[in-house]
Amino acid sequence: MNCAPAPMQWVFRHAGTSLIDTPDLPAPVRDSSQVHRWIATLWPDPIECDGWAAMEWDQAPRGWWLPAILAVGDVIEFGSSHPIDARSQHVTRWFGWLERATTQALIVVGPYGHADHAHRDARSSIDEVRLRQLAPPLGVAQLVAIGEPWDD
Fold it and tell me: Domain count of the chain?
């Protein structure tokens, strides 16, 4: 039985160029210096050992700086880790994909259990963006107005 929640839209506010909202990730360590948090943009890369390349976002005075190269359909990882004992860490990862951005927020669809699943679900949005970039097909009247190439 799969108890994972179904992915849904999450609204993460940003202030200027700094993301100030993130998913709530567990961090049961009282000493915050022992907790490592990150946000990263991920993309498929067959050269990497796990099949994914990552660009970790830089921390801002409040939150994380939004990367200038963020695009619709990008897979975003929110993560945290903290020590369990001297030799092991507890790592929590929250994967989603960027559906759109507004002047006040990023709308991210998630969570997913793995980057592969987020990437798969983002595919239709990525394809839609690509298709919108194509010129519309020419109508009959436009084709007639162009004429045949040998009419010159």
Answer: 1
Phi then psi for residue 89, to 5 deg, are -120, 150
* Helix, strand and coil in the chain, % to nearest 5: 20, 40, 40
> Do the domain assignments include residue 84?
yes
Cβ atoms within 10 Å of 120's Cβ, excluding its own: 13
For the stretch 30-76, pLDDT in tens is 666 788 899 999 999 999 999 999 999 999 999 999 999 999 999 99
Q: Is residue 121 part of a domain?
A: yes
79-112 tens-digit pLDDT: 998 888 888 888 999 999 999 999 999 999 999 9
**And the tokens for 73?**
């359909």
DSSP 78-147: EEEEEESSSS-EEEEEEEEEEEEE-SSEEEEEEEESSHHHHHHHHHHHHHHHHHHTSPPPPPHHHHHHH-
Neighbouring-strand partners of residue 42: 54, 75
Q: Taking a C-beta distance cutoff of 8 angstroms, is the pair 118, 10 a contact? A: no
**Token digits of residue 144:** 């007639």
Question: pTM of the prediction?
Answer: 0.81
